[in-house]
Amino acid sequence: MQFIVDIWPALAATIQFAAMAATAAHAMLTKSDVRSAAGWVGFILLVPFLGWLIYLLFGVNRIQRRARELRGVRRGKALPAPVPVARGSLPAEQEEQRRELESFARFGQKVLPESFEPGNTVDVLTNGDEAYPAMIEAIEQATRSIALSTYIFNNDGAGRLFVDALARAVERGVRVRLLIDGVGSWYSRPSIIPLLTERGINYARFLHSFMPWQMPYLNMRNHQKILVVDGQHGFTGGMNIAIGNLVAENPRKPILDYHFRVDGPVVAQLMRTFAHEWEFTTGEILSGPDWFPPIPHMGDLVARALPAGPDMGLNPIRWTLLGALAEARQSIRIVTPYFLPDTTLATNLSLAAMRGVEVDIILPKTNNLPFVDWAATPSLLWLIEAGCRVWKTESHFEHSKLMTVDGIWSTVGSANWDGRSLRLNFELNLECYGSSFARRLDRAIDAKIASARPVTLADISGRSFPTKLRDAAIRLASPYL
Predict the structure, then answer these.
(1) Which of 179, 279, 356, 378 has its Cα between 20 and 30 A from that of 164?
(2) Domain range enclosing 30
């Protein structure tokens, strides 16, 4: 007993020194931000015992590692990687636009080796009132295959419309595959899952488990929205399947949103993204002409799909946004429900405004997640001081996700301007290069600005001290919101 008493201080000191050295080394080797690395190393060294323990709990990025572990486990044959388009093979409306596109294409393919596909059309569908009938009509006309992926699939009037259409397709002999996120499938009570089983619809839930430690609520969710019919006709955007999107029916909580009907060769990239997630979830590989038929050119829009997730070293959507901000010369216009850009994105927005680029950021006045607004408000002050214009829409909750640059480049899809979309979730955006489509989005953005209220420095500075303190405190958690 006396021996244990005598050796205990030396043993504790040895454990403390070894743990401090190991965790400090880990922080220095894995943190790409030098300020983060320095902060963690200082915390580990200056707070005995608790410093390294807190680092192990909160400082280690387990999301990317866990995602890579999960995605590395393949059941069956992996799908082939796309072949990039060769330099100089991209058509353009004008020679100057051609040079800009080729420059951006070279940058974009270093971020993600997915080809820019010419010959596409993208139609804008407003709210579920336009999007749902178009999607259901496509499902009703399917003869070979239907691939549908969504984050939320509620058991309500909207959800049952889709269940009925999918069930009829199954009865016609169409191959139906439905992928719902494991968390999103529980947004309504009762869940839609028993009804899908009853109607014989082939569905799967992405990273679903009844064990909370196997299905963390906040991380690695499949937030993608994809519908591909017969491998040729696609839909994507940010719209879930819920009654709130049917605004004309006056739901209790209306949601304003856009979805997009896609035709042309880029639909194959939407299908490839779905097939990748389906194979990961179920082990079934979707291949052959039912899923990947030849697709003719349908228009003049150059586009490509941007899938992104925590298993990627560089998030393609985030880096594409950074590239677009750097290339902007005239205008940057952003519509998003959740605006919590990291320091690099916020800095590039500020720099663009300081260069003379007109930067407009349109946010909802009333958010379905109030704490996101609280966390965003302090950073709005710095952006407005740099010359950005911030607007708050006065109508129903705005869930749209749009961005245009210089009236020619645009991106739409599922990703928000926050760490959850750009770091933790699996997302899909469509990157488009064409003035006609960008102008269509700009007109929609103009309409939102016309009825929105500008956010001024006085609005932010005039908050009460308790409100400022609340917002600053919530902002500390913004990487996790």
Answers:
(1) 279
(2) 2-60
